[in-house]
Specification:
Elements: H1 13-23, E1 30-35, H2 37-40, H3 46-58, E2 63-67, H4 89-95, E3 102-103, E4 110-113, H5 117-121, H6 135-141, E5 145-149, H7 158-166, E6 172-180, E7 183-191, H8 201-208, E8 213-217, E9 220-226, H9 227-240, H10 254-265, H11 269-276
Parallel strand pairs: 1-2, 1-5
Antiparallel strand pairs: 2-4, 3-4, 5-9, 6-7, 8-9
The structure holds zinc ion.
């Protein structure tokens, strides 16, 4: 079975472990991995081979975490059967199905295995999805690290946590479906969301401070950063420029424009209560 283009050499699991160690992955780490297997391949054992290498590098005392939401707004989430969103890639969708891996019981699920897996996946439905009482918040609490394998900071959900901690003023309307008394119920909420392309700014912020380790995992360009470092550098920048992660209006980005409009639309809730209360 072939897992990649013929012009790339297939890497063995032991070579992946060596690459992870060279990057700075340590035994006992809490490691949140975002992956694009297309960039990694070919590796021995395919997506499962990559997962095994990650677990091997972390050792039994380490905890491996991956995003695991379904991305399907119209259907209730079932941690035992809902596929991970195709956007999250084949590694994330393989991971949650493995024996011993825990998965949050809500639509914004992450999956985890290892000694800290239970506390990382235990929180109830977080709204918006990346508040401190959510898997990315718990990884941050535990001084975990973020591994971006073949993806950039635009896939780094820890930056959404930083936005919330910074109090960014934008929220866009979203909905998900939950089960209440056995019935599917639509739940509307507001999220600090946008196209996320400008999360890539964090690359230079972290690199300039010597906080980002870079190398290869398989064939994929890979970054390793501390979750607390990600949050700290973002908070410093957002304090001066809360809209920094949104494309400027001249860029013509529909998603960032929607987020910008929400800032203009914010009304003073106290004033609203007064006018309707008379
Ligand atoms: Zn944008």
């Amino acid at each position: 079975m072939s897992f990649g283009p013929p012009d790339r050499k297939e890497l063995a699991q032991s070579e992946l472990v060596d690459q992870l160690r060279a990057l700075g992955v340590r035994r006992g780490d809490v490691l949140l991995a975002h992956t694009s297997f297309r960039a990694v391949r070919p590796v021995s054992g395919g997506p499962l081979g990559l997962i095994r290498a990650l677990r091997d590098a972390l050792g039994p005392e380490g905890t491996l975490v991956m995003p695991s939401w379904s991305g399907s707004d119209g259907r209730p989430f079932d941690p035992g059967s809902s596929p991970a969103s195709p956007d999250l890639g084949v590694v994330a969708d393989t991971f949650w199905q493995l024996s011993g891996v825990r998965r949050s019981a809500h639509a914004f699920a992450f999956a985890a295995v290892g000694p800290r897996a239970a506390e990382i996946t235990a929180d109830p439905l977080p709204l918006p999805p990346h508040i401190p009482e959510s898997p990315v918040g718990r990884v941050h609490d535990l001084d975990g690290r973020v591994l971006l394998v073949g993806v950039g900071h635009d896939a780094n959900t820890t930056l959404h946590l930083a936005e919330l901690l910074a109090g960014v003023p934008y929220r866009v309307r979203r909905s998900c479906t939950v089960l209440r008394d056995g019935r599917a119920v639509r739940l509307d909420y507001e999220e600090n969301d946008h196209c996320c392309a400008r999360f890539a700014l964090a690359d230079d912020w972290l690199r300039d401070e010597g906080l980002q380790s870079e190398g290869r995992v398989g064939h994929a360009r890979t970054r390793l950063v501390g979750a607390r470092d990600v949050v700290r550098v973002a908070l410093e920048r957002l304090a001066d420029a809360p809209l920094l992660f949104l494309h400027p209006p001249t860029a013509g980005c529909a998603e960032c424009d929607e987020a910008r409009r929400s800032v203009d639309a914010v009304v003073d809730p106290e004033a609203d209560t007064e006018s309707t209360g008379r």
